[in-house]
Amino acid sequence: MSLADSFRIAVRAILANRLRSILTTLGLVIGVTSVIVLIAVGQGAQVGVASKIRGLGTDLLFVQPGQSNDRTTGARAQAASLTKSDSDAIVAAQIPGVIGVAPQISFQSQLIAGSLNSRGPIIGTTPDYIAVRSSAVAEGDFITDADVERKALTIVLGSTLATTLFPNGDAIGQQVRLAVGGPIGFNFRVSGVMAPRGGATDQDNQAFVPVTTMQSRLPFTRNATGEISVTQISIQMAPKADQDAVKADITNLLVSRHAVATPDFTVQSQNDLLGAASEVSATLSILLGSVAGISLLVGGIGVMNIMLVSVTERTREIGIRRAVGAQSRDIVLQFVTEALTLSIGGGLLGMALGVGIALGLDGRQVAGQAMTTLIQPWSIAVAFAVAAGVGLASGSYPAFRATAIDPIVALRNE
Amino acid sequence: MIDLIDVEKTYNTGAGPVFALRGTNLHIDRGEFVAIMGQSGSGKSTMMNILGLLDRPSAGRYLLEGQDVSDLDPDARARIRGREFGFVFQAYNLVPRLSAIEQVEMPLVYQGAPDRHARAAKALERVGLSAAFHKRGPTQLSGGQQQRVAIARSIVVEPRVMLADEPTGALDTTTSAEVMALFRELVEEHGITVIIVTHEPEIAALCDRIVRMVDGVIVQDATSRHTAPEHRGEVSA
């Protein structure tokens, strides 16, 4: 019997039981689809997180308060452990390799301009921020040293924020009101609009004010001793700087300033963040991949089950075929072809669906975040190969069982 | 052409061995029209299975055209079966989802034969089923028509031997007569050896030779050729 003949017989059998065939393949379709989609999502997350971290700037160190394991100090006390004067001290120490220091205070606030309003993080910082975070201003000016000195009511809007509040593009020189909470609010003059940064983060939805303005206007940013708490100090290093040495110098400086035995702050380089994040997202990828793998396996068992039922049901047909001259390999070929046709069909359908869904999800907003999916060619190949392999395996066993059927018994089978 | 020499068949059942055939000797020549008769349990179906290479004897020898076929493996038997034998069963044994023409093509598919469609159409024509029936499945055919399809399927490979197990068991008298006339035609016009297993004396009487079996033993082997012409006349009338 030729392959074309056995394929024709297989298609006939599959079409004869249309609903059952569809339900059988469905398991494999879902399995292959989920492998492709989940791996694309996992990889997308991995790449997305990495690009977000890289997008922060280059050669950066981040000093953040807290995370000491001293249980006696509450979260608030920990949050207050990093101050504006720490930042000033780092500048004053002139640590070799450090070329910029930008303290940041941030909080969420509503911004109102005329009848329009928006919401976003307000960041109190210094002119160094531009260099440290490799940002650029599209129009007007960023915060200047003079602004910091005067505690000026100046605000620089992120590009998205500017478009939301001033759809006509005439933001510069306009008034924006920050509604800090309840009746408290301040009017700021827009001095600049940032160039769009793009990417998956909401960096374009931020606004910047002089750190000193924030200190003096917003009392809640001060800690118990009247110092101004900062949420982060970003430090720009020279491109060739010894990152570990800089990290150690800053740690030593702050430890001695804070007079603590163990650091009550963390100093992390971009590489540290990248490492941690990629570890997390790699774990996520593996997790998603295994879930998908299990569903593929279950789909395969479904095919095997149906093939076994099909062989039992068609005992008589097998007997007839044996009686008219079908040899063992013809019977094996028939059932293996049938299982393979089902599973390859399911695999192809799953491939199309998986790629389609992964492409459709790319760039979609999910939970306020733009989703990135990255289709992995190997995942398509593996999913398809597993589907086909499962088909072969689940067709072979029932097929060999079919050849063991005695034609006499099969023919008497009513 | 067919020689069974001291053939025995024993089945091992839970209640001990059952002797389906004991020391059977049978010779059948090319072009004979033979009926094997007997009650159920007489061993006639076992005889048929062994003759058709569906089963193999426990002891003794089976010579087909002088070649010993009693010890062949299942696939070798399948090959000979497909080439030399045509089978017709009481229950027709058509594959449920296939059309009439596909049923008839099936043995040719396994032989890898060319011109399958044309040969199948010719076989159907020979059993009196026109092209109008080609596309019909078993459920769209009457019992007689289904049996005709089954006969067409068995003759399409141009077998030397046709084995029919109670071929008229499920058919009414008129249709039975038609099917028997068809067998007669195969014998007379195509030189096919036809062997029928039946328990109906009226059907056996339409054959040229009657082999009677009781308890796995041939008790009578009579040539009734002298009665055949009258019956033939009746059937074809």
Q: How would you describe this structure to a colleague?
A:
- The complex is a heterodimer of chains A (414) and B (237).
- Chain A is an alpha+beta fold.
- Chain A has 2 domains: 3-53 and 276-412, no CATH class; 67-263, no CATH class.
- Chain A is 55% helix and 19% strand.
- In chain A, strands 2-3-8-5-7-6 form a 6-stranded mixed beta barrel. A two-stranded antiparallel ribbon of chain A has the order 11-12.
- The two termini of chain A are 27 Å apart.
- Mean pLDDT of chain A is 82; it is low at 67-79.
- Chain B has 237 residues and is an alpha/beta fold.
- Chain B has one domain: P-loop containing nucleotide triphosphate hydrolases (Rossmann fold).
- Helices cover 36% and strands 28% of the residues of chain B.
- Chain B contains 8 helices and 10 strands.
- Chain B has helices at residues 44-51, 74-84, 100-111, 116-126, 143-155, 173-190, 201-204, 228-236, and strands at residues 2-13, 16-28, 33-37, 59-64, 67-68, 85-89, 161-165, 193-198, 209-214, 217-223.
- In chain B, strands 6-7-8-3-9-10 form a 6-stranded mixed sheet, with helices on both faces.
- In chain B, helix 3 (100-111) packs across helix 4 (116-126), helix 3 (100-111) packs parallel to helix 5 (143-155) and helix 4 crosses helix 5.
- Chain B is globular and about 50 Å long.
- Chain B starts with a strand and ends with a helix.
- The model of chain B is unreliable at 226-237 (pLDDT under 50).
- The chains are: A alpha+beta (414), B alpha/beta (237).
- The A-B interface holds A 1-2, 5, 12-13, 16, 316-317, 319-330, 407-408, 411, 414 and B 49, 52, 54-55, 74-75, 78-79, 81-83, 87, 89, 91, 93-98, 106-107, 109-112, 153-154, 157.
